[in-house]
Design goal:
5-stranded mixed beta sheet, single chain, 19% strand, 329 residues, globular, 6-stranded mixed beta sheet, alpha/beta
Length: 329
């Protein structure tokens, strides 16, 4: 009787484990079977939020499920990153983000509630967002050379907006200061909207900004674009030179917007997501919608995305070190 029970137990336990594993494998192969939540680390209406909504809507037909966006702004995008890092690794919670919480925050803050290098699995870059150097027209400057000359003549007098201390645009300002040998006063902002209001109201002199929120202001002359940090000229402003063309190649940068999953998400799930996003590259309607807001459709898969993150992490870490910036609490 005891032998039979032992035999029964020895057979049933492995059988139960096998059935559980099989059920898990079956769930993975059927993924996704319910809507996918996308955490966006900024508020509604921001450029990142708009790109998230456009790209999420486009990929739904390739996944057969809805992507439901949830805005979690705050703490320089770190709140959203921490939330996704602690989410189940089942592919039903994704982060749509800029490089800030993934590639720059670790170099600027003493403590994070997540590990940028270990807590995420890259899925796909969906969008590249060119950056422009913007000044208020009443500053009386028309070129980058004139801006540099003014900054050298009056050290610290030019106010330069920074959206989020420790973000990629803050660090590119540090590169500009070093490359051009100038001193300007950084003015931190939590959101670009207030900075743009201050530019328009002559309370701020200059700022690096992505195209969507300032496109109309530049086209009407209310704001002046001096150059783009993009590697090539942007289609929306073809007469605008690149910083590299102006002799500042170290100022080349573009902001990527990408999807990441929690670490340990099954490879099969990552692959299925990546394949779906990969199909967007040939979506001309999507490319046109993004171009209208000043962004570029450029799908990058998980392997290359991981390399870009590593390269960015090293680059921004070097900038922080060379700029002698103090870490924040």
């Amino acid at each position: 009787m005891r032998i039979a029970r032992r035999l029964s137990h020895s057979v049933l336990v492995p059988l139960a484990l096998w059935l559980g594993a099989a059920a898990h494998a079956e769930d993975t192969s059927a993924y996704p079977v319910r809507p996918i939540k996308v955490i966006v680390p900024v508020g509604p209406g921001a450029g990142l939020d708009n790109a998230a909504r456009i790209s999420a809507e486009a990929v739904e037909k390739h996944l057969g499920q809805r992507l439901v966006l949830e805005n979690k702004p705050g703490a320089g995008q770190r709140i959203a990153a921490a939330l996704v890092a602690k989410s189940p690794s089942d592919g039903y919670t994704l982060l749509f983000t800029t490089p800030t919480p993934i590639a720059t925050a670790e170099h600027f803050y003493k403590k994070l509630d997540y590990d940028p290098a270990r807590d995420f699995a890259p899925v796909a870059i969906a969008v590249y967002q060119p950056v422009l150097l913007i000044v208020r027209p009443t500053l009386g400057l028309r070129t980058v050379a004139e801006l540099i000359a003014r900054a050298k003549a009056d050290p610290g007098k030019i106010s330069f907006g920074v959206q989020g201390l420790g973000g990629e645009m803050h660090l590119m300002l540090e590169v500009l200061k070093k490359q051009a040998g100038i001193n300007v006063t950084a003015v931190p902002y939590n959101a670009a909207a207030q900075a743009i209001t201050d530019l328009l109201g002559d309370r701020l002199d200059a700022m690096f900004l992505v195209i969507p929120p300032i496109k109309g202001h530049v086209e009407t002359g209310r704001l002046l674009a001096l150059a783009t940090l993009n590697a090539k000229r942007v289609a929306q402003f073809p007469d605008l030179p690149t910083m590299s063309e102006l002799g500042l190649p170290a100022m080349t940068a573009a902001i990527w917007f990408g999807y990441l999953a929690p670490a340990k998400t099954p490879p099969a799930v990552i692959e299925k997501l990546a394949r779906a996003f990969g199909k967007l590259q040939s979506d001309s309607a999507l490319a046109m919608r993004l171009a209208d807001m000043g962004a570029e459709l450029n799908i990058v898969g998980p392997t290359d995305f991981a390399k870009i993150i590593d390269d960015d992490r090293r680059r921004y870490g070097r900038i922080v070190s060379e700029s002698n910036l103090d870490k924040l609490n």
